[in-house]
Amino acid sequence: MSKTFTSFGALKTALQQELVTAMNETIDKSFQDAHTNIDEFYASPEGRYHRIGQLGESPESEVYGGGDSVTGIVRLDTGYRYNPSGRDTQTIYGYAESGGLLGNGGFWAKTKEDVKNNTTEIFGKHFN
Questions:
Q1: For residues 19, 120, 43 and 49, what is the CA-based torsion angle, rounded to 10 degrees?
Q2: Is 51 helix (H, G, I), strand (E, B) or coil?
Q3: CA angle 99, 75, 91 (to 5 degrees)
Q4: Domain coordinates in residue numbering, the chain
C-alpha cells in the first residue's frame, strides 16, 4: 500500500479497507488449511467401524466487523449429534484431536499454527 493521502480520513479509510481484505485472505487460507489438516485425520485406515465423515464437514469460517475492528474465526461446528455414542460432539472431536480415535490426531493444533503463520504472512504482505 504505497499511496499518498491528502487527508487523515482518506488514509484511515484505505487502512480499514486493507484490514478487511487482509482478514478475508487470512481466514480463507486458514479455512482451506483446516480442511487439509482434517483430511490428514482420515488418511489412516478405518479399522472396525465406518467413519461418517462429519469431522470433515465441520469447519466453518466467518469474518465480521468493519471500520476500526474486523474479526475472523475458523471453528469446528460442534452442533452435530453422534448417536449412539452418547457423547457430545466437542468430546468426540477432542478424542479425534488427541489420537483417541482411529485417525491421525493433531489436526486442530496444526490448524491453530497455520492461522498464526497465515496471519503473520498475509498481514505482513498487506501492511509491510
A1: -60
A2: coil
A3: 40
A4: 8-126
The residue among 29, 39, 126 whose CA lies nearest residue 74 is: 29
Lookup: cell for 66: 468493519
Residue in this structure with the C-alpha cell 498475509, named with its chain if needed: 122
What is the distance between the alpha carbons of residues 25 and 46, in angstroms, rounded to a whole number?
A: 34
Cβ–Cβ < 8 Å for 102, 25: no
- In this prediction the pTM is 0.88
Cα distances (Å, whole numbers) of residue 69 to 51, 66, 75, 82: 40, 5, 20, 37
The answer to whether the Cα torsion of 24, 25, 28, 30 is positive or negative is negative
pLDDT tens for the 128 residues of the chain, in order: 668 999 999 999 999 999 999 999 999 999 999 999 999 998 888 777 777 888 999 999 999 998 899 999 999 998 877 765 678 888 888 989 998 888 899 999 999 999 999 999 999 999 98
DSSP-assigned letter for residue 1:
-
